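Re: duplicated header lines in exported structure tokens

Our pipeline writes sequence and tokens for each protein into one text file. With two proteins the header for the second block appears twice in some exports. Here is an export where it did not happen, for reference. First protein block:
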Amino acid sequence: MMKAEMASTAMELVERLRKDHGERVVVTDSAELEFYAHDVFSLGQQLLAVLLPESADQLKSLIAELASAGTPMIARGGGLSYTDAYLAARPGCVLIDTSRLNRIVEINRVDRYVVAECGVTWAQLFEALEPLGLRTPYFGPLSGLEATLGGALSQGSVFLGSGIHGSVGDSVLGLDVATISGDVLRTGAAAAPDTAPFFRYFGPDLTGLFIADAGTLGIKLRATLRLLEAPGHADYLSWQFRDSQAMFAAMAKLSRAGLASECFGFDPLLAEMRMKRASLSEDAGTMAQVVKRQGLMSGLKLAARGRGFLDTVSYSAHAVIEADSAAALTDRVKRARSLVKDGKAIPGSIPRALRGAPFAPPNTMLGPAGERWLPVHGIVPHSQAADCFGALQAVMEEERACLDAHAIQIGFLYATVAAQATLIEPVFYWPDSHTVYHRRRVEPQHLARIGEPDANPAAREQVARLRQRMADVLRTNGAVHFQLGKFYSYRKGRNPAALALFDAVKRQLDPQGLFNPGSLID
């Protein structure tokens, strides 16, 4: 079929979908298509249309219609990717925004599970569970105000609760997934007749196939997650360290002891970037949330300490310690302090503020002077964290002239994941103009406050090169990744038998390769 004929057929499909489902569901406005073609860093190929289904049944119908026409489709959750996760790798793709599938279907307090549609945000789920004294073990990324369950499950995710409970996949009991035919594939115990979704395993674990699959095997409709009783007591600890090795050692000790629900750290540059923002005591939104969740005394402590306590020439680590009773909390805090012998204790204002307002607007995707922001990450065993970080620092020294010439800065975020692992996240900042994506996602008042640098395509090109170089260094140092998108390598060097099984599953579920083409192919 010639290009002109293909374009005509595609437009006929879009017109038919618009007629059947309405303009609220089928979007072709050029400004909207431009926005949806961006993520935090990149611009994908032009989209044919954006679909916003309003029910699971409508989504299944749309998938079947697109598949019948041979039209590739990409699912999008909260849209906070920086790895081309939902960007079209070729023209003629339709993007399916699942954000309207946002019902919490069941909160089962007796059997301790929650069923929710995958367009539910982590903030929405947290707020529904909080008054009941419940939460999921892993309870979201810091972008959870907009990040959805489906996005996190498709791309992988860590942070809140990860210090003890691991990544998002470790909290999942089962999934409902729309297949290319428009049918629903159910995993976990609920796939058996007359069985509630209370258990993950009944024969082979099919749920795991769809965790971090980059949306290539199907589109997630519903997820069932474990529930636990939210600990009623918490304390917040922070330390500064003379060097990164001492910080990594302390974080690993806390991680192995299972003491910190979150344990994270900053290098001096990232600490400085944080401190350049408005002081904690001046952030009325954060203060209100701290008082609401932790009480007036916590709010007063936060206000009194402000931001002057953090020395931005040191490495720092921060921990949230939780327990079911005051006595147990006292014991856990004592144990945590006894493990961290090489750090200087400082006020725990940063973890206190983070827990007071765990889900904030995505304003941090721009720096305090309007700089562009781009992370890259790897997760390594504790034993390899210091060496891996050293290899990344060596890259920075080799590239010092380039970094200085283009005013590119690189800071680092660190976090522990369960008892085994450390996440290392280099974060790039550089002066550059904002895209339509930034102008729509960042709050208008914040944009006005920080300003916008001039366009800087030369620096942007170097950041793309350096990001790839850092990703390569992470892999050669034994790192794994979540949020693979279309950036991180999946296939290179992978066990051939495992790869053959994945490819066979892909052919079975998506024989035409219509779900998110371009993902997991390198």
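Second protein block, exported in the same file:
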Amino acid sequence: MDSASEYVIEMLHITKEFPGIKANDDITLQLKKGEIHALLGENGAGKSTLMSVLFGLYQPEAGVIKKDGKEVKINDPNDATALHIGMVHQHFKLIDVFTVLDNIILGAEDTRFGFLRKKEARQKVKDLSERYGLKVDLDAKIEDITVGMQQRVEILKMLYRDNEVLIFDEPTAVLTPQEIQELIQIMHNLTNEGKSILFISHKLNEIMEASDRVTVLRKGKYVGTVNTAETNVDELSRMMVGRPVQLIVEKGEERLGDPVLTVRGLTVHSKLYKKEAVKNVTFTARAGEILCIAGIDGNGQTELVHALTGLEKPSGGSVTLCGRDITEASIRHRSLEGMSHIPEDRHKHGLILDYTLEQNMVLQKYFEPEFQHGGFIRFDQVRQYAERLIKQYDVRSSQGPVTVVRSMSGGNQQKAIVAREIDRDLPLIVAVQPTRGLDVGAIEYIHKQLVKQRDAGKAVLLVSLELDEVMNLSDRILVMYEGEIVGEFDPKNTTVEELGLYMAGAKRREKEAIA
């Protein structure tokens, strides 16, 4: 085989610039036919940008793309689809109230005389799902199926369009350990059938298990491509971050203090699904411990956190912070009483995207004497404070404190929130998915900060879907399933597999055993 046709996709010397930053600086990536090729790099390394160039969402300033050895121009995603390139985005693009089948055929409908040929479409989808081991209920509505199933729908959407090159952007972020294993198996089934996969991930263990080759990017530049069989987790993390990384969190024995947060019989109604999202939940978080609430996305964790932080009113039960009842308190009141909050949705509840970085850093402090005098903000103090946090937490942006937050990478936006919330030095930190979408270097840093807070006698309530994080960081684990706490575990005496069974609802411990 001549070298030109060995590769199904070649991205040669791609450069993509945004104001003040080169997101991709002369990057070359070559995807062989029938391989799973992982793309690895820190936040802001340029991985998603590079894939967006391939999918036609961005146009590069320099470089060429070749498909099967021939140069191609990809002006938009329709061009990518015509070249049989498909993409599963990190946030799925599905319509909740449509059925699985309607979502799959949407935009690629098979019609005759203007009428939809649904029977033929159903048969084609059914054949695809059997061939690749993608079992889904075609008549279920998207809103009623699990996130793992929704991902299968996204994969079937690509296969229905006869795509040969499949791009997966952080595909395992919202899956249970069992679903991750199933997904890796599905990816192997796809490549066995001749498909080629590009797979963006931060999770080194998954990359080792799933991929054939790995290309590493760092700060917008190409670091190298290695065969997975000839590398290891330590080498990959070093290539990615530029230094050795500690992958295991070091922490001493906990020194428990008084209760900081006490939750009794908390019930929260779901606005979306017209049912109880949180059912009679009771627990206590004490000073000097990291208490983790684990579960698959959509089992009431979001509503629980909203009720604790004041974003939603509970329909029953009580919340006590440092001995004071805050069940009905406002968000600012909770904040002043001693609660920090690293929110799940950083764009919606964590940042004001069109404000600068320094303005975002003082959102809960601008009214304190340090930052205002006679009702006027002391901008010099704000600037100094922001510069200290930016340096301390390594928040990278194109223009420092005056950068508009919208233009920063997701990981650096996250670091900014973590810096702001931890620096407030309050008795309780509610940390929801604090490392979602972060790379190993940033995860290592944030984990150390949370352990430091715990050792300083703070209570940390961690809500996480990442089981490695849960096992590594927590002192106690509560598993939440369908709005209830179904088990309490000591990370020293449990396994990821056992937690997975409780998270999927296959097992539960009775309340007496938990309380």
